[in-house]
Amino acid sequence: MLAYPSSIDLSSRTLRHLTGQLAARQREIGTRWRRLSAGRQALLALAHLRCGDTYAQLAAWFRIGIATVYRYIREAVEVLAALAPTLAEAMETARRKAFVILEGTLLPIDRTAADTPYYSGKHKRHGMNVQVLTDPFGRLLWASAALPGATHDLTAARSHGIVDALAAAGLKCWADKAYQGAGRHIRVPFRGRRLKRWKRRHNSSHAKIRCIGEQAMATLKGWRLLRKLRCSTNRITDLVKAVLVLHHASV
Known about the structure:
With 251 residues, the chain is α/β, with parallel strands linked by helices. Helices cover 46% and strands 12% of the residues. It has two domains: 12-81, no CATH class; 87-231, no CATH class. The chain has helices spanning 12-29, 38-51, 55-62, 66-81, 87-94, 153-159, 162-169, 197-210, 214-221, 236-250, and strands at 100-108, 119-120, 125-134, 140-143, 147-148, 173-174, 186-187. Strands 1, 2, 3, 4, 5, 6 and 7 form a seven-stranded mixed beta sheet that branches.
């Protein structure tokens, strides 16, 4: 197999953050020796998450076995996922904001047509439904656990407790038409084609605010691994949380 060097469009701050967490993990479990140092393991994990490099490619570049690559990446993802903010912590942060934006996204996965629960009729593809909360500037505050792609956005928001958490915190939230009926705390545009002029103006201003939340979606999709997931669906939640923690570390 031919190996070639690759660059990662991340700051050194992100690498230092992950290196520190892995070093602390190794001290906790009493690791004496490994094929890669904490810094090299962090670089390995970032190459996989950010660039989507396969285990075989990483094994060739770092001169270790594919099974070792798998273990190192899984450990790094679990360490990062444990640091992800909970919904309650995100609500505490959001209290200092004027409002929040709620967005749902579909992370594509590699599944066959027989896997009906993962097929999204809206997007016409298989994937996992993830709910995201952002601040008024489009910065990621929180990401939910991943649900099968057939789950409606409103159902997902209710099952994660987002609707109740926003109501309890008294926060204003902007969202799209998929969240119609979520409650007065979640503001959605008017539905219909022949709307009155003031309703059209309302929808226009609503769209200008909500489009800022699309920046968060671009942030998630900037991590190439999330553009096409080929792992077990049970691991996707940890991957999303790991990306969220790395995003917070980089900014």
